[in-house]
Design brief:
Elements (H helix, E strand, L loop, with lengths): L4 E5 L4 H12 L3 E6 L14 E4 L7 H14 L4 E3 L4 H11 L5 E2 L4 H8 L1 H10 L7 E4 L2 H7 L6 E5 L9 E2 L17 E5 L4 E10 L2 E13 L5 E6 L3 H14 L3 E9 L5 E7 L12 H9 L13 E2 L1 H15 L2 H10 L1 E2 L8 H20 L3 H6 L11
Parallel strand pairs: 1-2, 1-4, 2-3, 4-5, 15-16
Antiparallel strand pairs: 6-9, 7-8, 7-9, 10-11, 10-13, 11-12, 12-15, 13-14
Helix pairs in contact: 1-8, 9-10
């Protein structure tokens, strides 16, 4: 296995770069693939080859053919998704006889956990506590909860980065929502407490890596850009119970909340990599745990992790608005730049080219930077356009 070839998809993401560095450092040949022309991970020394793919959301058939051709031509044994392209890959592995293994559960389970309502039903069936969550598929469903709007959170069943979330809205604000069977929403009881994010790797239901962290700064309401490691036994028990109960193999992440009494509840699940991966920096131990059924690996970095350009773009304006400049300055001094890696400086410079490509797409499509960063790989359920 030491010299085997691994394909990592979603090369645009810092987590894909980090995973490539870990596996390359443990002796794997790492190929990266994605649809942008110049993603950051393609510049890394850990990347033996970067292959540009068609955008799966808009050219699904061409994407499937290209992935299969790449897997066969390069003798790839394992494919590890890192972003929402995992759902398109899940469909390919379901519908084609692929010669490589996909480091993910089957498509049915992937879709189930990505669905914010089905995930809650599954979690509850495993004996775990969940916040009350109601499925909205019509105006009548919405009308049934309208009077309780101030105690609920409304969000699309298929969404990411907290996009379109309505947090305890007024009844009038609900007029903007039009749930349907193709575009369902959930109404979830608002839970107050401390947010915890979880990144995990599991093999056949056994936890192999777990990083629990919180995001001190975010890009708008959604994706975190500054990460601090935390420990929480109740959060660990939740993740362990979930991966054991589903027999999970692959990467998985959760948005959790810890109530004042210490109880931890799940809010949603993403069956892919998230930024907790950056707290693992030992290539050999991480790779043995992830790919060779070795012992569980613990985070080996405790320093906060951040992407400094994102902090200047999003964190500084937030600090100025809240008049918390000293806190921002202290946070910047305390954190490591998560793109830094010994002997591999190129990705840090490449982030500007990658950002320019995303900014160009945002301008052309008249959408935000964040929307442009994932538009071509988003998966919005089996009935998406």
């Amino acid at each position: 296995m030491a010299n085997s070839t691994v394909l990592i998809t979603g090369a645009r993401a810092p987590v894909a770069l980090h995973l490539a560095r870990l596996l390359h450092g443990a002796g794997r040949r790492v190929i990266l693939a994605d649809s942008p022309a110049r993603p950051i991970a393609a510049a890394s020394k850990s990347c033996a080859l970067y292959h540009r793919l068609p955008p799966p959301r808009f050219a699904g058939r061409a994407y499937g053919k290209a992935v299969e051709a790449l897997v066969r031509s390069e003798g790839i044994e394992l494919v590890i998704p890192t972003c929402e392209e995992i759902f398109y890959l899940g469909q390919i592995w379901r519908d084609r006889a692929m010669p490589a293994r996909l480091f993910a559960p089957d498509m049915a389970l992937l879709a189930q956990v990505h669905d914010k309502h089905a995930f809650m039903q599954l979690t509850e069936s495993l004996g775990l506590a969940v916040p009350e969550t109601m499925l909205l598929q019509s105006k009548d469903d919405l009308q049934a909860v309208r009077s309780r709007s101030r105690e609920l959170v409304f969000k699309p069943v298929w969404s990411r980065f907290a996009s379109h979330v309505l947090l305890r809205p007024s009844q009038d604000e609900l007029d903007a929502i039009e749930p349907s069977p193709a575009m369902p929403w959930v109404a979830q009881r608002f839970v107050s407490g401390d947010e915890i994010s979880a990144y995990a790797v599991a093999l056949n239901g056994k936890l192999k890596a777990l990083g629990l962290y919180r995001s001190l700064y975010r890009a708008g309401k959604g994706a975190g850009i500054y990460f601090e490691l935390v420990e929480d036994p109740a959060a660990r028990r939740l993740v362990e119970t979930f991966v054991a109960g589903t027999g999970w193999t692959g990467q998985i992440s959760f948005d959790l909340i810890r109530e004042r009494d210490g109880r931890v509840l799940p809010l949603e699940c993403n069956p892919r990599a998230v930024s907790g991966l950056h707290f693992f920096r030992d290539p050999r131990r991480f790779t043995e745990a992830m790919l060779e059924d070795g012992r569980e690996v613990k985070p080996d970095v405790s320093t906060p992790q951040t992407v400094r350009p994102a902090m200047w773009i999003y964190g500084l304006p937030a600090a100025l608005r809240s008049l918390r400049i000293a806190r921002f300055s202290q946070a910047m001094r305390a954190a490591d730049e998560l793109l830094d890696w010994p002997g591999d400086p190129a990705p840090k410079q490449a982030q500007w080219r990658a950002l320019a490509e995303i900014a160009g797409a945002a301008l052309r499509q008249h959408i935000s930077l964040q929307q442009a960063s994932t538009r071509d790989i988003e998966w919005n359920g089996p009935l998406q356009d």
